[in-house]
Amino acid sequence: MTAQSSMTVTVTGAAGQIGYALLFRIASGAMLGPDTRVRLRLLEIPAAVRAAEGTALELSDCAFAPLDSVDVTDRATSAFDGADVALLVGARPRSAGMERGDLLEANAGIFGPQGRAINDHAADGVRVLVVGNPANTNALIAAANAPDVPRDRFTAMTRLDHNRAVAQLAAKLGCRTADVEGVTIWGNHSASQYPDVTNATAGGQPVSSLVDEAWLESEFIPRVAKRGAEIIDVRGASSAASAASAAIDHVRDWVHGTPGRWTSAGVVSDGSYGVPEGLVSSFPVQAVDGRWEIMQGLDVPDFSRRRIEASVAELEAERDAVRVLGLLG
Ligand code: NAD
Ligand code: LMR
Fold first, then answer.
1. How far apart (Å, rounded) are the C-alpha atoms in residues 112 and 25?
2. ω into 134 cis (within 30 of 0)
3. Which strands make up the sheet holding 180-181, listed edge to edge?
4. What is the pLDDT of residues 235-267, one digit of tens each?
5. Helix 159-173 crosses helix 241-256 at what angle (to 10 degrees)?
6. Spatial separation of the C-alpha atoms in residues 309 and 176, rounded to whole Å
7. pLDDT at 100 over 70
8. Could you tell me which residue ranges the Lactate/malate dehydrogenase C-terminal domain spans (predicted)?
9. 138-159: per-residue pLDDT in tens?
10. How far is the CA of 13 from the centre of ligand 1 (A)?
11. Does ipTM top 0.90?
12. Fewer CB within 10 Å, N side or C side of the chain?
């Protein structure tokens, strides 16, 4: 997918926190570029349609040049009609003390019907980013319910974890975030994820030569993996603007490409690095011609392998749990 002159973007959970931080940036052109006109379709539950309509009024008041129209609905079939990009944000966020796994059953019921609506109504080239948690398994459910849409069009957001890892490294090393390259988030968007710096560089120097292992193991990895809980604790609500920003980054890179660098995204595994085929797992990826490609041939030492396996085991357990609930079609 390259950016077209005009695209339909569907956002679910439009009246929520992330929706409010996301919609104005999409409408301003930050996601698809200033030359792509945007038709926004906002999906909400009936009780929140009025609030989404209020957001639509504010979008109008911004007079954004790329924004062609905003429609608000509580019907998935209309919301996904002709969608080129679908951002599945709408779901219940966790509150203090909950693990993301606790949301599995609460949110799983949303993504089957939305997958079917995407299958039946979206544009042929639709690209889907699942943000709502548990994002990887929700993406698996949506993909399983959209048999006519190629699997590689369904992705889950781990870009926020990636950005968090880059920011933590830049802060530690006293460099700019733009100087940090080659970071990877592997596995699940949960505390089991593995933020990996094995192949990372800062200003061209291997990160492994700039920081000690003890810091990586006891501070960096848990800090990044548990950052969502830290935000909930400190802010009193789950991350919103940073999540919206990561969603913009993910779709912008998917559409416009990532020449000469890689990032992280939850994509359907093709079996690379021993991750079972079909699971939606985070990998090092580059975007080429509108497709995410898993970077091949990277060094995965034993320490990394064990951590990837642990997170993948959690993804397998989530998959098995939703399969028992009959959510995989
Ligand atoms: P929120 O509660 O502020 O908003 C969620 C919105 O979704 C609400 O307005 C709700 O009415 C709506 N909604 C619920 N069911 C829906 C449905 N079936 N169709 C359409 N809309 C529906 O929550 P938030 O803070 O915006 O977070 C949304 C989701 O994103 C949560 O699951 C959260 O855990 C997740 N999240 C993921 C990441 C990530 O990195 N992947 C980061 C932050 C948050
Ligand atoms: C995050 O990583 O900030 C989100 O997934 C919210 C959460 O529940 O951790």
1. 28
2. yes
3. 180-181, 201-202, 205-206
4. 999 999 999 999 999 999 999 999 999 999 999
5. 100
6. 32
7. no
8. 158-320
9. 999 999 999 999 999 999 999 9
10. 6
11. yes
12. C
C-alpha to C-alpha distance for 149 and 126, rounded to whole angstroms: 8
Residues in a beta bridge with 39: 8, 69
Q: How confident is the model at residue 99 (pLDDT cuts 50, 70, 90)?
A: confident
Amino acid type, 311: S
Per-residue model confidence as pLDDT tens digits over 263-290:
999 999 999 999 999 999 999 999 999 9
Write phi, then psi, for 212 (nearest 5 degrees): -90, 160
Q: Report the candidate in 150, 145, 154 with the shortest Cα–Cα distance to residue 124.
A: 150
Q: Is the per-residue pLDDT at 2 higher than 70?
A: no
0.80 exceeded by the pTM? yes
**In 10 A of CB 33, how many CB atoms?**
12
**Tokens (6 digits) for 174:** 């006293």
**What single letter denotes the amino acid at residue 258?**
T
**Rounded CA separation 20/52 (Å):** 9
Ligand 2 binding pocket includes 136 (Cβ within 6 Å) = no
Ligand-binding site membership of 296 (annotated): no
Helices (H), 159-240: 159-173, 213-215, 221-225, 227-235
Measured distance CA(280)–CA(154) in Å, rounded: 9
240 lines ligand 1 (CB under 6 A): yes
138 annotated as belonging to a binding site for a ligand? no
Residue 188 beta carbon below 6 angstroms from any ligand 2 atom: no
The residue whose C-alpha atom lies closest to atom 4 belonging to ligand 2 is 228
Two structure tokens written together for 209: 């030569």
